[in-house]
Amino acid sequence: MSIKSTKFSFEGGKALEAALRAIGKEATARSVAEKALMTAAEPIAEEARRLAPVDEGFLRKSIKVGKRANYGRGRKLRSKKDTTYAFVGIDGSVLPPKDTKTKRNKRKTRFLQSSGSGVAAYSIFVEYGTSSMAAQPFLRPAFEAKKQAAVDLLAPALWEGIEKAAARAAKRKGKS
Question: Which residues pair with 153 in a beta bridge?
Fold first, then answer.
């Protein structure tokens, strides 16, 4: 399965970039951009939660917006230093209740053995289907439905973050 990304363009990007660079600190600029991206991605996550099929609700609870994605087996997204990402997807830490059985090991010590797997393990089968189960896509349609809403939220969220960072910087400068 390949990982696809979509690029957007919008008016005022150069002015936003100049304002982010004017903040001075790279970490502050990155933080402002990450917060804005996460704010902009929230409508997509809300739509995905609405579209997710509900059996017991674990899939719906696991849909999150995050700053980083790990593609498994220790691989990480390679990017340029000045690139910032936000991801909408399944949080692998959300686990449905598991059936547990008490077993004994060679030393006759009791321990609980869990069966089953996390939401992330079955979410891909729900999204794409299997040979014995029809696909019930929820992430792709959510993205397609709300991508423009996300783009529309991005610039105002960036400007708000830039204004707050500039106010904090001016306050610090006034104290010194």
Answer: none
- Please state the pTM of the whole predicted model: 0.71
Burial of 174 (0-12, 13-18, 19+ CB in 10 A): exposed
DSSP letters for 33-60 = HHHHHHHHHHHHHHHHHHHS--SSSHHH
Residue 110 DSSP label: E
Which residues does 49 contact at the CB level (< 8 Å), separation at least 6?
60, 63
Residue-wise pLDDT for 118-131, tens only, equals 666 778 888 889 99
Cβ count within 10 A of residue 40: 24
* CB proximity list for 58: less than 8 A, separation 6 or greater: 94, 95, 96, 119
